[in-house]
Write a structure and sequence with these properties.
- The structure is a single chain.
- By secondary structure, the chain is α+β, with helices and mostly antiparallel strands.
- It has 2 helices and 6 strands, in the order βββββααβ.
- The chain has 2 domains: about 45 residues, no CATH class; about 60 residues.
- Strands 4-3-2-1-5-6 form a 6-stranded antiparallel beta sheet, with no helix packed on it.
- β2 and β3 form a beta hairpin.
- α1 runs antiparallel to α2.
- It is rod-shaped.
C-alpha cells in the first residue's frame, strides 16, 4: 500500500462487498478512505483507478458522422436508383436523394458518436490479500 497517495481513486474489495472510494491513509492495522476506516484484514483487494485516454467526444462524433454519411450515401444511391427507374414519375433526382440521405446519415452518426464516453478507466492492482 506504500504505492498509494492521498487522493488516489480506488476500487476496494472488502469482505462485506466492493466500494469505489478515495484513499486517505493506511497503517499496519487500518485502511482509511473517504468512505471510512476498516481493519486491514477485512480488505481483500485494492485497485487504483486511472483514466486512460480513449479519444474525445469530438473525435467520436467525427467518426460517427463519416460512418453515417457513408451509410446515408449508399442508401440514397439505392433509393434514388429504384425511384428513378423507367416508368416511374421522377420528381427528384438520384443525386438529390443521395445528398439528403448523406446529410441525414452524417447527422445521426455524429449524434451517436458524441454519446460515446470520451475516456476509459484502467485499474492497477495495488494489494491482494
Amino acid at each position: 500500500m506504500a504505492r498509494l497517495h492521498a487522493g488516489d481513486r480506488l476500487h476496494v474489495s472488502l469482505k462485506t462487498g466492493p466500494v469505489d472510494t478515495t484513499f486517505v491513509s493506511a497503517t499496519a492495522q487500518d485502511f482509511t478512505a473517504d468512505s471510512g476506516t476498516v481493519k486491514r484484514e477485512d480488505v481483500l483487494r485494492i485497485e487504483r483507478i486511472q483514466a486512460k485516454g480513449g479519444g474525445s467526444r469530438g473525435k467520436h462524433a467525427l467518426i460517427g458522422a463519416l460512418i453515417g454519411a457513408g451509410a446515408g450515401a449508399v442508401i440514397g444511391a439505392i433509393t434514388g436508383h429504384v425511384s428513378n427507374s423507367p416508368g416511374k414519375l421522377n420528381i427528384v433526382s438520384t443525386g438529390e436523394i443521395t445528398g439528403v440521405t448523406t446529410a441525414a446519415g452524417a447527422a445521426v452518426g455524429a449524434a451517436v458518436g458524441a454519446l460515446i464516453p470520451s475516456h476509459r478507466e484502467r485499474r492497477e492492482i495495488i494489494y491482494v490479500l
